[in-house]
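fyi for ur records
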Amino acid sequence: MNSPADLRRALVIGAGLSGSAVAFSLAQRGWSVTVLDQAEGLGAGASGLPAGLAAPHVSPDDNVLSRITRAGVQATLQRAQTLLQSGTDWDLTGVLEHNVGAKRRLSQGLHEPDSSALATPAQIAAAGLHPATPALWHAHAGWIRPRQLVAAQLQTPGIRVLWGQHVHSLERLGAEWTVRDAQGQPLGQAPWVVVASAFDSLALLQPLPGFAVPLNPLRGQISFGHMTDLSADERRLLPPFPVNGHGSFISGVPTPAGTPGWFIGSTFERECEQAPVRPEDHEANRLRLATLLPDLGEAMNAQFDPARVQGWAGVRCTLPNRLPAVGPIDRERLPGLCLSAGMGARGISLAVLCGELTAAWMSQEPLPLPPALVKHLAAQRYATI
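which gave:
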């Protein structure tokens, strides 16, 4: 008979934001975790995004997405505070949301600490926007460099990472799962497997009985440049905090080369499984900046010259209702198999929460969200009858 320690072994497929968050949460609970990834090192997939925001979604009725992203942002920022270097890897700056088209409205009944509010005239002015611009202020929000969070989570004791592992199939033999490569050779075995490999999860899981999670690819590209290339006039127009609402603009954050930079994006291209950096998407991001921060956008037109602008693109994974699929996939037909995928462009805000939720399910602990919200995230909601 297996001891409890024998059963607390897991394979996690995918070493990005989702996989590293699951691995961290399991290791913190005493699990022995092996993470398998097809890349040769960190940041090869969508988690290689140079910089992004952890900021909540708001709605007048404080809907499910708003409540879940608020909980997710809180979990992400707590994790960042624990593991990362403030000012270099992340920062709790607050985020101004330019409410483009006045589409966002705050819930009148929400009075939680650090909840979002209407931006003040001083905050709107600091962003360089017209005084009449509709805007929100998210105090409990900020920027994060995802690759740094991934690296920190994977360095947790109890986690072993194996790079260059191309998982091709899953098979349950007795009480354990075996993962194999394309030649049928075993890459690992454990009672539990968590698939957290973004859109690649679909090809791996589709052959299994009853799997019906409708994962879709979502390509995104950001444009960025170096702060040292900005003129004095351009620098004077930079907001002192990130601004989102039509994409997002961040400045003063290290680029992949380590020097401070500015970032705008991202584009959204559905049903695209490849991620080349495209000149036309730099143009789309230039127009995005012009809408988000008109004066700055006009001043920075020259920064989008092909000889200057740099780019990064990745393929995210999304679901039709914009909420991830998390936890056990089908307890009856696929016992011990879990999923953590489908976060779309909200991986920074949701991956840590989804990792905690998955680990709590696997450890038979109380879940970190109310049941009314959990049911909207449960991967088993897609299980076929």
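The first strand starts at residue 9 and ends at 13. thats all i got for now
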